[in-house]
Design a protein that fits this description.
mainly alpha
Length: 172
């Protein structure tokens, strides 16, 4: 039954909306990867989401008011997906999840660097990132500095370093 919830607990209600892994991955890719089209979300995610799952999550997230969809003026058959204000306000939660994951799971350096930068930057950086996301997704005025740019530079630096110093082959 639509609209029925297990309880009125705010954690439960959040999990009912975002608790499956793919919803948060789609939001993550819109937020940190600036992937705004279906094809980008389908082909550029590390996790390899299936097309039917992606279509379902985009529909659900749109219906829940977490993302919006508009026609792409450059191509009739494309849509542009954007984060809404409630999704943008997930930045602190995702920053904390990334920080926890860095400490307690076997992350890769190149995929953990953004979480490290956000953790080290703390709430002031999260606020600046949310302001930038409001610019990118909601048309707010541009911020003074680009957190997205800082995160991308950190990622690119780790990738470049790994190319220079590849990990030694495991010994038999």
């Amino acid at each position: 039954m639509e609209g029925a919830h297990r309880s009125g607990c705010p954690i439960n209600l959040t999990l009912e909306m975002l608790g499956d892994r793919w919803s948060l991955i789609v939001i993550r890719d819109l937020m940190f990867g600036n992937r705004r089209h279906y094809r980008e979300l389908l082909t550029q995610s590390e996790e390899g989401i299936a097309s039917n799952i992606l279509a379902d999550r985009l529909k659900r997230l749109t219906e829940a008011g977490m993302i919006s969809r508009r026609d792409d003026p450059s191509h009739k058959q494309k849509a542009i997906y954007s984060l809404t204000e409630p999704a943008i306000q997930l930045v602190p939660l995702l920053a904390q999840m990334g920080a926890w994951g860095r400490r307690h799971t076997p992350t890769s350096e190149e995929l953990a660097i953004r979480a490290q930068v956000l953790e080290e930057g703390g709430p002031p950086m999260w606020d600046a990132f949310m302001a930038e996301l409001r610019h990118l997704h909601l048309g707010a005025p541009p911020p003074q500095t680009s957190v997205f740019g800082q995160l991308q530079q950190a990622y690119e630096a780790v990738v470049a370093q790994r190319r220079q110093d590849p990990a030694p082959a495991p010994s038999a």
